[in-house]
Fold:
Amino acid sequence: MGIGIAQVAATSGCEVFLYDANAAQTEKSVLNLQKTLDKLVGKEKISLEKSEEIFKRIKACSNLSDLKDCDLVIEAIIENKEIKTGVFKKLEDIVSEDCVIGSNTSSISITSLSAELTKPERFIGIHFFNPAPLMPLVEVIPGLLTDKNLPRQIYDLMGEWGKIPVIAKDVPGFIVNRIARPFYGEALRIVEENIATPEQVDDAVKTLGNFKMGPFELMDLIGIDINFSVTKTVYQDYFYDPKYKPSLLQQRMSEAKFLGRKTGKGFYDYSEGAEKPFPEKDEELYETIFQRIISMLINEAVEAKRLGIASDEDLELAIQKGVNYPKGLLAWGKEIGFDKISETLQNLYEEYQEERYRQSPLLKKM
Ligand SMILES: NC(=O)c1ccc[n+]([C@@H]2O[C@H](COP(=O)([O-])OP(=O)(O)OC[C@H]3O[C@@H](n4cnc5c(N)ncnc54)[C@H](O)[C@@H]3O)[C@@H](O)[C@H]2O)c1
Structure:
């Protein structure tokens, strides 16, 4: 992620200092960036001159102390709280008093990271989506100790960098990784209970919901282990709220190293010559699958609205620009009818007698 963020900053004219504890990784990242820029020139997306300018603005560093003159440091190292805070402590001794420190963490509480700093008010979450140069969304996340003016400054900066920023509360999963959980979770449950096959679920949400990819295709792309790890973190950090309970099927897939495209096998087989199974179309089943998944997603968006995790506008933007959903979920709920969403969830609740299907108290008032 680091080199992608560096590319974004350098493209908008910033001088960037790139540091990785593993020098070989820095070298590899810089080489990859050169290849990316060459491709952009080849496709006439940028001029040769522009690509040289971008490349020159990124300086590979061998010491953390080379970051001493930076106004903003965006950390995108391994997702481990102790290692991250160790780096922040060293950084605070290196950078100026006014330097802002941001973290690209996907799942660690911003408040908990900032609390380890001498100057926690300078710390903020700046969460890019992968690949950072292509995905427009950036979640800007102030923690409880962040200076009140900082979110706006970072929001404006991200706009200058050509991104679509949204401001999110410091809650597990922030906006996107929280609201999108049922897209995977409900799909996994449908397959786990032999209600439908992965290809039927994917086909149902693509044909009835116009999603670009189905949940199983997307999990295979993201990496089943990565997706599982985000789900587990959100579940634990919400104090084991049954809504976010991870799936055993996903755990077994991870254990078997069926991790998706990267290992050649996930919910689908990516080995050479393997053919994707053709879904057995079933109108009634497809409608059930789609209503179940979309109702869970809309309920999650309504609950995020109720809790003020972001403004309505940012909730809608985040889901469209962070995970490419075809519509904002609040608008989608209005279109389907919130009473219908409520009825679907009520039926699921009665069938399963599980809190997983509890409705947001706001749903009935929408
Ligand atoms: N990959 C994604 O899709 C994605 C999306 C959004 C956010 N993030 C977040 O971005 C961060 C990085 O993710 P990634 O996928 O690029 O990870 P990665 O494992 O590919 O890269 C992490 C890099 O950090 C370096 N590193 C480890 N310890 C270090 C230290 N002490 N000092 C300096 N460098 C150190 C490693 O050498 C490695 O090159 C994580 O916090 C992750 O949660 C990742």
